[in-house]
């Protein structure tokens, strides 16, 4: 593997605060992977769309990692659905940035999400270097498990994803489930798919003790804390947690004295159309007194919130991986998650957390009740959660990704030889 990689993350910058807008697990993935690759001697240039005129054209995000802001379309107010109209401009500027460098400046292109894959395919052919692509989410998968009130992904995205699958020399899947979906739904060749788990920063997300974290956040030591962390949108299903809390309080009104439900994050995606929808739901259910809305926080602060929780709820309708679930487990907090997508890999049912087969509030309430009623189970799962999280390390992710780059280069050479 060579010395320099072009990382393309068109629609979301690794410098953005995860938890609102389009910033989430993918931002964490791009910056953490880039930093770990740089630590192994690989220079990484991350190309992303500029969303503010105040941004410097080039920002050093870490030693060996440069974020290059590309002007393509208006800085603000452009939705993800409008971004395909800026692909040509973005691609032209990426190619221009490389053109002023010596021949063979980049050794590989790694694109994230289908929009970036479109640009990556063009760069691959122009620079004659392998394209490795990470989907992160897929339209066909999302449309199969659509949340009520959510908007289906358009046909244009499906076609765009199929084109990227065809163009890539190697596809990186977060889990074996995602690899299977790429093969079965998109016709990817099985030997063109590499399963590489994302990691977790175990220096940030580590057990600190529930009591200490609660003191830091001003939460009562005897509280039942059911945490949701992530972007507030139908796909992530925070409403399922709120409706389950309503059921719990109907079944046991005395729980109200101890219950705290922090929702850490901001509106995103189709959730932006009704930014107050979750607060309105809490009011309609009559549980506003136990729900606490917290704006997006840093990774360090999120680790404190996770540590403070009795359980972290991840009720998503679809997750290609579910980074927040690994992060929570690394702090020693059990996760209650929907049994969908990558969450079935990330959460070991009965070992590091509990999986729920439905999105029915009563089923979620029953599962959460198990933890509320059994502190010994919370402790047991918490220990299992820490052990399970150790299997996910960014250093290992970077090592496997470097191997993927080399394998992609070999596949490209073999294709050119035929």
From TrEMBL:
Give all residue intervals belonging to the Glycosyltransferase subfamily 4-like N-terminal domain. 24-203
Keywords tagged on the record: Glycosyltransferase, Magnesium, Metal-binding, Transferase
Q: Which reaction does it catalyse?
A: 1D-myo-inositol 3-phosphate + UDP-N-acetyl-alpha-D-glucosamine = 1D-myo-inositol 2-acetamido-2-deoxy-alpha-D-glucopyranoside 3-phosphate + UDP + H(+)
Q: Which residues cross the membrane?
A: none
Q: Where does 1D-myo-inositol 3-phosphate bind?
A: 11, 22-27, 80, 113, 137, 157
> Binding of UDP-N-acetyl-alpha-D-glucosamine: at which residues?
17-18, 25, 231, 236, 297, 319, 327
Q: Which residues bind Mg(2+)?
A: 309, 333
The enzyme's main class, written as a single word, is transferase
Q: Does the keyword Metal-binding apply?
A: yes
> What is an example of a GO molecular function annotated in this UniProt entry?
D-inositol-3-phosphate glycosyltransferase activity
Q: Where is the Glycosyl transferase family domain?
A: 210-385
Q: What is its EC number?
A: 2.4.1.250
Q: Which family does it belong to?
A: Belongs to the glycosyltransferase group 1 family. MshA subfamily.
How is this protein organized at the quaternary level? Homodimer.
Q: What does it do? A: Catalyzes the transfer of a N-acetyl-glucosamine moiety to 1D-myo-inositol 3-phosphate to produce 1D-myo-inositol 2-acetamido-2-deoxy-glucopyranoside 3-phosphate in the mycothiol biosynthesis pathway.
Instruction: State what protein this is by name.
Output: D-inositol-3-phosphate glycosyltransferase
Name of the coding gene: mshA
């Amino acid at each position: 593997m060579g010395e320099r990689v072009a990382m393309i993350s068109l629609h979301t910058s690794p410098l953005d605060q995860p938890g609102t807008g389009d910033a989430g697990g993918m931002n964490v993935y791009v910056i953490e992977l880039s930093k770990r690759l740089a630590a192994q001697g690989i220079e990484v240039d991350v190309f992303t769309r500029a969303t503010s005129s105040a941004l410097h054209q080039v920002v050093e995000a870490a030693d060996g990692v440069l974020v290059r802001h590309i002007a393509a379309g208006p800085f603000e107010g452009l939705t993800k659905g409008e971004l395909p109209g800026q692909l040509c401009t973005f691609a032209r500027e990426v190619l221009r940035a490389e053109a002023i460098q010596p021949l063979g400046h980049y050794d590989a292109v790694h694109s994230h999400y289908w929009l970036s894959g479109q640009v990556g395919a063009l760069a691959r052919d122009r620079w004659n270097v392998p394209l490795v692509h990470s989907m992160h989410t897929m339209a066909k998968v999302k449309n199969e498990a659509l949340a009520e009130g959510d908007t289906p992904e358009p046909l244009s995205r499906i076609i765009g994803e199929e084109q990227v699958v065809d163009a890539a020399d190697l596809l990186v899947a977060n889990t074996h489930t995602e690899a299977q979906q790429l093969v079965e739904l998109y016709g990817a060749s099985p030997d063109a798919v590499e399963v590489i788990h994302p990691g977790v920063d175990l220096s940030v997300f580590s057990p600190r003790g529930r009591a200490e974290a609660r003191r830091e956040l001003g939460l009562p030591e005897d509280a039942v804390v059911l945490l949701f962390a992530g972007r507030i949108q139908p796909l992530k299903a925070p409403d399922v947690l709120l409706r389950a809390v309503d059921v719990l309080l109907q079944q046991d009104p005395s729980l109200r004295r101890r219950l705290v439900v922090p929702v850490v994050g901001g509106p995103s995606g189709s959730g932006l159309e009704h930014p107050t929808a979750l607060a309105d739901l809490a009011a309609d259910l009559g549980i506003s007194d136990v729900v606490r809305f917290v704006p997006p926080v840093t990774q360090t602060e999120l680790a404190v919130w996770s540590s403070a929780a009795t359980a972290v709820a991840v009720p998503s309708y679809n997750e290609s991986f579910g980074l927040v679930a690994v992060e929570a487990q690394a702090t020693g907090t059990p996760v209650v998650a929907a049994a969908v997508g990558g969450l079935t890999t990330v959460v070991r049912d009965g070992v590091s957390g509990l999986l729920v087969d439905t999105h029915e509030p009563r089923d979620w309430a029953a599962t959460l009740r198990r933890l509320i009623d059994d502190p010994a189970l919370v402790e047991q799962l918490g220990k299992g959660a820490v052990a399970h999280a150790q299997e996910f390390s960014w250093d290992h992710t970077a090592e496997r990704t470097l191997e993927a780059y080399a394998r992609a280069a070999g596949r490209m050479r073999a294709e050119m030889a035929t």
